[in-house]
């Protein structure tokens, strides 16, 4: 059995949560104060995900880059792969906030800054 | 002092200095209240530091939605444009002059020349500056590769340049932690985050970043020396005891090509000091009343120039409050109060703003504790106010609403204290 301890990042309350896992199964979750925290903690030990933000170069914009985010959280272990993909992208101005500038494994890459 | 007849003159009710979240919110609110407004910013674009803060976590209170920094800035900028607020970018303020209560002059340079703006009130929202290597006692070679966190962020997230490959970060506040993630995501090796205090400086959710990327955090340590030829090659780190004294024989060298300093912010108030604005040594910003007016009548302040905030939402809120102050000031020729109630710091309160309350209106007090504590009560004994808090940390600003009726119960002062429940 493994016990994972971490600080919940769902809201600023920052609960100290403990999750007990055996053979890939969650046995118990302790320390959370809300159901969202519990759900996040279970996901954190079984399939941790993060929304990823970065910048990509833009041609002809006011600034040399445009900031982007993934439209949904991506599995943590795939983040380096996603970053490699983003490093290869180039976009052309005009770009508006909310524009989908690329797609990676079905996940939309959305502009968060205009250019 | 006479005006300058040779410099073109502009006239407005209010001049807002700084186009970040505080300044933009202030300018928009002042315009909504029917005042003529000019917003000045020295950058080429509006938004202040927000366009480079590409991570999320902004706007939860102000827009009731979680946004990235550029998205937050864009919403405020859109509001300015829709309201028809006049603004100048690449406009650098040289001087503020205070001729009389309703006569201020702001002199600025811009690509189209030098101007003097006559205004009845000024909202100063120029933000803060970062503390640099020399301020935190780092000595050694004068090499390239030393950046403040904000400089590194500008290079990466505005210009798309990676400032270095092997990085040591000084300071575990939110900015340092977020830069640790940015460097790690972009493939740089973050060798260590060095924190002077025995606890991390940032929000717990940002401390999680270090775990995500297996970045070592050295608590009770400090960087004391940088060595290299041309470029940073290694930095010397020492352990400190509970009194922040260096522990002899505890030196260790970390090989790195880049040192990023994230050692806190200081309100940028030089121009305010020049016109005699009183500064609170605890905040580094001006002493203000509940309209965010400084001790020089008609000069208002908001955002990180007032106090270093941890949420942009509070910064924008302060901008609006200052704008409402200018409206009252211009309409009535001053901010009136039957009596001014002084806000004083009690046990475990490091700073609190505003400093004087009129009791004419509800206010938010913004305060920070001096040291972390659990199971505490925030108390104001003079009016019997009590608020239970599970945890308080110096890194997290506490915002407390007081109603006008509550404030009026006080005689001369209110003492804010954080004590064991």
UniProtKB/TrEMBL annotation, chain A:
The keyword Iron applies. GO terms for molecular function: iron-sulfur cluster binding; metal ion binding; oxidoreductase activity. It holds the Pfam family DUF1667. The keyword Iron applies. InterPro entries: CPE0013-like_sf (IPR036593), DUF1667 (IPR012460), Mopterin_OxRdtase_4Fe-4S_dom (IPR006963). Residues 2-32 form the 4Fe-4S Mo/W bis-MGD-type domain. It comes from the Archaea. Keywords: Iron, Iron-sulfur, Metal-binding. This is Molybdopterin oxidoreductase. It comes from Thermococcus gorgonarius.
């Amino acid at each position: 059995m493994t016990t994972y301890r971490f600080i919940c990042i769902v809201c600023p309350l920052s609960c100290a949560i403990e999750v007990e896992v055996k053979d890939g199964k969650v046995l118990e979750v302790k320390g959370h104060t809300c159901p969202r925290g519990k759900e996040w903690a279970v996901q954190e030990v079984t399939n941790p995900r993060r929304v990823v933000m970065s910048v990509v170069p833009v041609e002809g914009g006011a600034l040399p880059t445009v900031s982007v985010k993934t439209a949904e959280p991506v599995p943590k272990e795939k983040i380096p792969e996603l970053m490699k993909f983003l490093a290869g992208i180039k976009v052309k101005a005009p770009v508006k906030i909310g524009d989908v500038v690329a797609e990676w494994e079905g996940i939309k890459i959305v502009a968060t800054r205009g250019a | 002092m006479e005006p300058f007849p040779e410099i073109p003159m502009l006239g407005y009710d209010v001049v807002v200095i700084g186009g970040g979240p505080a300044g933009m919110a202030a300018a928009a609110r002042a315009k909504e209240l029917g005042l003529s407004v000019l917003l000045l910013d020295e950058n080429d674009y509006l938004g202040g530091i927000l366009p480079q803060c590409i991570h999320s976590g902004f706007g939860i209170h102000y827009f009731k939605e979680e946004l990235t920094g550029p998205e937050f800035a864009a919403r405020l900028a859109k509001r300015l444009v829709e309201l028809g607020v006049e603004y100048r970018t690449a406009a650098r303020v040289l001087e503020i002059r205070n001729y009389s209560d309703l006569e201020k002059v702001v002199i600025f340079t811009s690509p189209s020349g030098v101007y003097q703006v006559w205004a009845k009130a000024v909202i100063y929202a120029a933000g803060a500056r970062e503390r640099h290597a020399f301020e935190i006692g780092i000595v050694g070679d004068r090499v390239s590769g030393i950046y403040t966190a904000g400089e590194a962020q500008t290079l990466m997230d505005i210009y798309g340049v990676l400032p270095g490959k092997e990085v040591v970060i000084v300071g575990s506040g939110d900015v340092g932690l977020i830069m640790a993630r940015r460097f790690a995501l972009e493939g740089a090796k973050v060798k260590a985050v060095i924190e002077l205090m025995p606890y991390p400086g940032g929000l717990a959710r940002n401390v999680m970043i270090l775990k995500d990327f297996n970045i070592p955090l050295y608590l009770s340590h400090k960087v004391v020396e940088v060595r290299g030829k041309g470029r940073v090659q290694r930095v010397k780190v020492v352990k400190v005891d509970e009194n922040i004294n260096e522990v002899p024989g505890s030196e260790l060298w970390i090989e790195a090509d880049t040192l990023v300093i994230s050692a806190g912010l200081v309100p940028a108030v030089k121009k305010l000091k020049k016109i005699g604005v009183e500064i609170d040594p605890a905040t580094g910003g001006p002493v203000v009343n509940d309209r965010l007016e400084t001790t020089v009548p008609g000069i208002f302040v908001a955002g990180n120039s007032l106090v270093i905030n941890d949420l942009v939402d509070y910064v924008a809120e302060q901008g609006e409050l200052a704008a409402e102050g200018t409206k009252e000031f211009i309409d009535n020729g001053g901010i009136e109060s039957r009596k001014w109630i002084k806000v004083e710091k009690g046990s475990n309160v490091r700073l609190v703003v505003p400093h004087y309350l009129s009791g004419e209106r509800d206010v938010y007090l913004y305060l920070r504790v001096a040291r972390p504590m659990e199971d505490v009560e925030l108390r104001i004994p003079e009016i019997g106010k009590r608020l239970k808090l599970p945890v308080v940390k110096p890194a997290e600003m506490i915002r407390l609403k007081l109603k006008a009726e509550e404030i009026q119960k006080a005689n001369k002062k209110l003492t804010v204290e954080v004590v064991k429940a």
